[in-house]
Amino acid sequence: MKVTAIAHPNLAFIKYWGRKDEVLRLPTNGSISINLSGCTTKTTVEFSDRYSSDSVNLKDQHSSEVERIVKHLDRIRILAGITLKAKVVSENNFPSGTGLSSSSSGFAALTVAGVSAAGISLSEKELSILARQGSGSACRSIPGGYVEWINGATSEESYATSIFGAEHWNIVDIVAVVSTEKKDVPTSQGQLSAQTSPFFEIRATRMAKKILLVKQLIKEKKFSEFGELIEAEALEMHAIMLTSTPSLVYWSQGTLLLIKLVKKWRNEGLGVYFTVNTGQDIHLICEAHNVDKIKQKLLEIPEVIKIIVNTPAEGAHVTEEHLF
Ligand code: PMV
Q1: Which tens digits make up the pLDDT trace of 288-303?
Q2: What fold does the segment set 1-324 form as a domain?
Q3: How many A from CA of 101 to the centre of ligand 1?
Q4: Three-state secondary structure of the chain
Q5: What pLDDT, on a 0 to 100 scale, did the predictor assign at position 61?
Q6: Helix 65-80 crosses helix 102-117 at what angle (to 10 degrees)?
Q7: Which of 41, 91, 147, 294 is 20 to 30 A away from residue 114, measured at CA?
Q8: Looking at ligand 1, which atom is closest to the CA of residue 149?
Q9: Residue 96, phi then psi, degrees to nearest 5
Q10: pTM of the complete model
Q11: Are 150 and 212 within 8 A, CB to CB?
Q12: CA of 49 to the centre of ligand 1 (A)
């Protein structure tokens, strides 16, 4: 059977950097995210005896991902008790490898399409656990709205779940794409050195409290306190990257320029905060009434080559529009 799924990459406000179990991709701490409405991965999967080997067509995405995708197809085949080979075609409507977490939507869409194409039905929790094994953050793209990846001790306890619906709070993530150059160290590889930072243990002790606090601030919709917290969290994660061995610098000149501008705009009274993942693109977080003002400012900056406006989106789901 052929099945197509759509998933959105997610943006973590409280982030996942470092694992307590590499094989199962169990993170050191829990994390909190939203799915990004303006960014979409669409993936079609078909298992068939017409195929003598797996074929994976990823359009513009990293070819190094192919091996991971075949490994994920193997997980699905084991669950479904089948040995059929598969054809996978996947496309993104946003740049990959630049800080927009394309692997989160990629493995979420692959999980939802693959499981259904293999003829099995899993709960949202089971889909999240499975997606996590492909790419950790992919577990957060399975549920919709505001999402928590629970810090479980075992594979069965490490999954993501919706904590508030997408409509709970209409905050906006304006992504400023500052270069289409792909990162030189993939996230999965970067994660391996997190523990080498002398500050990793200190960060780990702070995370449970941060998660509780951000959940409270989201619940009460306290924008400036929320913004202060998530901006400091992004800088703390990058402090770990900068002080790891080997050190990781994911920012470009465009990223730094915008970090400074966001602080300046805030000093001038504009309610905007930033967060950055692994890659140069920067996420500007604001309330809905400030979107036009911020877009206008970004359009005047030559380093910004594209703007993507996102609101909290739904989770991964099946669609009838196939790619082949
Ligand atoms: O799931 P991965 O291996 O792509 O790691 C995601 C890492 C960050 O995007 C930097 C942080 C996060 O929690 O999304």
Answers
A1: 999 999 999 999 999 9
A2: Ribosomal Protein S5; domain 2 (3.30.230)
A3: 7
A4: CEEEEEECCEEEEECCCCEEECCCCEECCCEEEEEECCCCEEEEEEEECCCCCCEEECCCCCCCHHHHHHHHHHHHHHHHCCCCEEEEEEEECCCCCCCCCHHHHHHHHHHHHHHHHCCCCCCHHHHHHHHHHHCHHHHHHCCCCEEEECCCCCHHHCCEEEEECHHHCCEEEEEEECCCCCCCCCHHHHHCCHHHCCCHHHHHHHHHHHHHHHHHHHHHCCHHHHHHHHHHHHHHHHHHHHCCCCCCCCCCHHHHHHHHHHHHHHHCCCCEEEEECCCCCEEEEEEHHHHHHHHHHHHCCCCCCEEEEECECCCCEEECCCCC
A5: 63
A6: 30
A7: 147
A8: 13
A9: -105, 155
A10: 0.97
A11: no
A12: 36
Tokens 């050190």 map to which residue?
247
**What is the residue extent of each domain of the chain?**
1-324
List the structure tokens of 243.
């002080």
Distance from the CA of 263 to the center of ligand 1, in angstroms?
Answer: 24
Residue nearest to atom 9 of ligand 1 (CA): 277
Residue 161 pLDDT > 90, yes or no? yes
Residue type, 207: M
Å from CA of 15 to ligand 1 middle: 7
Look at ligand 1, atom 8, and give the residue with the nearest C-alpha.
Answer: 277
